[in-house]
Amino acid sequence: MSTRGGEAARPKKRATLSDVAARAGVSRALVSIVIRDAPGASEATRERVMRAADELGYRPDVRAQMLARSRSKLIGTVFGMTGTFHFDVLDGLYTAAADRGYELILSALTQSRDENRAVESLQDFRFDALIMLGPATPKPVLAGKVPLVVVGWHVDDPAVDVVRTSDADGMAMAVEHLVQRGHRRIVHVDGGEGAVADSRREGFAEAMRARGLADDARVLPGGLTQFEGYTAARTMLDDPRLPTAVVAFNDEVAVSVLEAFMHAGHRVPQDISIIGWDNSAVSKLPHIRLTTVAQDPRRMAKLAIDRAIDRMEGTAVDERELVLEPTLMVRATTGPARQD
C-alpha cells in the first residue's frame, strides 16, 4: 500500500451522482435521467454527463436500481461444481437471459454448501425467479414461494416447472445399441444419490428387462467424478468375469472407466464397450471419441429461461414438464461384444 508521511493512503471515495452532476455542470436529477437512459435530456447533455461519469469512474448502484423497480430483472441460479454439463447449461442460460433482458445471479453447490445455503445467499438480491441445475432433489426448498424451474430431473410438486431430457429413452437407446452388437453382460456405473441418478438406474433396469436381460444387468455405485469412475472400474477389474459393456452416469465417469481398463491392458472397444452421457467436450477429444447419450444444454437453457419469465409475467403454459429426446452419438468406444 502506498504511503505519504508514514500514513496509509485512504481508499478513493466512490463517485456519486452528485459528483457527476458537479463535474458536468448539471443537476443531480438530470444526471439520473441520463444514467437511467430515460427521456428528458438532449444529446449534448447526455454526452457531457457520460464523459463526466467516465472521468470520475462512476458506476451505478445496481442494488439501488433494483429496489427502485417493481421487478429486479434478476434470475437466481443454483448449480453444482462437478462435471461439465452444468457449465454448458449455464452458458446457455446467460445467453437466453440476456436475450430477454435479464441477468443471472449465481450460487454454487459444493461439498460443504448445500441447497439451503446456496438459496439463502441469493435472497438479498431479490431475484424474480429461480432456476435450479442442482441438487437433484424431489422437494426444492423454495417450491411454491417463487417461480421455480428445475433443469434435469422430475419433480412432482405442481408449483415447480421442469425441463429435462428423458433418462428412460436415453438408457433404452444405449442398451439397444449394445444389444444389437451382441452384448449381454452390461454394467451401469450410477451417479450416486439424487433424482437424476435414480431415474437413470430405473431406466437401465427397465431397458435390460425389456430385452430379456434382467439377470445380466448389474449396477455399480459410482458418482459424478472421475475418481468415482475409477473406483467402479477397479471393482469390475477385480472380478474374474468382466462385463462386455459399461454405461456410465456421465462422460467424466465413462472416461475414467475407459482409462482404467486400458491401463489394465484391455482394449476399447474390442474387449469392452463404454458409453457415457452428456456429449461433453471430453467425449469429442480425438484420442477418446466416446460413444455417449447427448443432451442439448443450450435448448434446455432457453426453455428454462422462457418458462421462468412466463411464470413471472403470468403467461399461460400448456405443460408444466418439458421432456426432450436425447440422441445417441456413436463414436469409437463401442463395438461387437467380445467372445469369451
TrEMBL record:
It comes from the Bacteria. SUPFAM superfamilies: lambda repressor-like DNA-binding domains, Periplasmic binding protein-like I. Residues 15-69 form the HTH lacI-type domain. Keywords: DNA-binding, Repressor, Transcription, Transcription regulation. CDD domains: HTH_LacI, PBP1_LacI_sugar_binding-like. Coiled coil: none annotated. One of its GO terms (molecular function) is DNA-binding transcription factor activity. This is Putative LacI family transcriptional regulator. It comes from Rhodococcus opacus (strain B4). The lineage of its organism: Bacteria, Bacillati, Actinomycetota, Actinomycetes, Mycobacteriales.
